Amino acid sequence: MADPGLVVVDKAPGMTSHDVVARVRRLAGTRKVGHAGTLDPMATGVLVLGVDRATRLLGHLMLTEKAYDATIRLGVSTTTDDAEGEVVSTAPVDGVDAEAVRTELARFVGDIEQVPTAVSAIKVDGKRAYARVRDGEQVELKARPVTIHELVVREVALPEVRISVRCSSGTYIRAIARDLGAALGVGGHLTALRRTAVGPFDLSVARTLEQLGDDFAVLPIADAARATFPVVELDDERAAHVRFGRALDLTLPDDRPHAVFAPGGEFLALYEQRGPSARPVAVFV
Question: Where are the catalytic residues (predicted)?
Fold first, then answer.
């Protein structure tokens, strides 16, 4: 069985995130494998998976920022806001120019309210929105706050627009395509999506499933924690307290989870500031 750690996969098109998890379970020799945020079957790119104890890091990884390259097709709206849905309307794009596209896309940058795509995994009265849509229901989701840190227009070759986006977790790139089309009055949907980074993990460290099949290895849990979270090095006394899940008389520099390490370099836990002391979020020993 593989050691606890992270696996950064470059997902191929046509696979669900669960397909990738199932394959990594076989390669790792354990069923204890999870992923930090799904990718749709049409999407490719970075999918971070945890093996064994490292699965407990994934919930915290899901809160980090992500980056994408995307292609938008203007003039066509679909039921899913991407190329896998049925076409619901078409419109000519003759009256749209590149300057208008860039102007509207600039409005998305910053802290915005975004209505998630109707086929998202958000639960509505206990049932996933995409399942309700699949059953023929009309789903109207409430706008949620998201942050788009950066949106770069790579090319405007109408009806296609290529963009790169760096955003908070929970941002729907399909919704950007939909909302751009709506703002221009012609409709739009996503035709290609590649996730290029999840937090500190980008395509430079991602491996395809074929590569992992030839040489399966994980990023050790201690290295993953150092790469992902601010680090606190403890003395022996405080490290002993952590092993029992006790609060520490520490003042952390901010309210993010911090990875705490024993003097010998062993990763012990994630701690965060709660009042005058630091308290455990998750203990790994």
Answer: 40
